[in-house]
Amino acid sequence: MAEYAKPLPVVNDLNRPHWEGARDGRFMVQRCLGCGHLALPPMPNCSGCLETSMEWVASSGRGVVFSWIEYHQGWLPGYRDETPYNVAIVELEEGLRVVSNLVGLPHDQIAIGMPVEVWFDEVTPQVTIPRFRPRV
Ligand SMILES: [Zn+2]
Predict the structure, then answer these.
(1) What single-letter DSSP state applies at residue 130?
(2) How far away, in angstroms, is 18 Cα from ligand 1 center?
(3) How far apart are the first and last CA of the chain?
(4) Which single residue of 9, 34, 49, 50 has CA 20 to 30 Å from 84?
(5) What is the DSSP letter of 16?
(6) How far is the CA of 42 from the centre of ligand 1 (A)?
(7) Cα 104 to averaged position of ligand 1 atoms, centre (Å)
(8) Which residues lie across from 55 on neighbouring strands?
(9) Which domains does the chain have, with CATH numbers?
């Protein structure tokens, strides 16, 4: 297996449940115990009501492409050999929008609103990064 050359997530006490969930095949998001607002990346306070009590819940991992962009410049090592690559905003069925990448299809087939599902990319033995692929 070639060494993974892209930046890896910095796992900390705030985001650890997300990354551990990904390794276990679950797409974990943060939910406010005060108002139910969902967040990812996680926040120490709810952006909806400022509550500090949060829990982690497994998302369905299903959603649609809300927006996406194609990068032609590899600004960081690991991306230089993969241009063009995409960065997408996926709107989950739960309503939360998350930033990720779309995999498994050429860019000319990406469409706003297309159904996608999470796919867990095991990039190192320690790190699994959730990405999204077309849902059939
Ligand atoms: Zn809240």
Answers:
(1) E
(2) 19
(3) 29
(4) 9
(5) H
(6) 12
(7) 35
(8) 31
(9) 11-59 (no CATH), 60-136 (2.40.50)
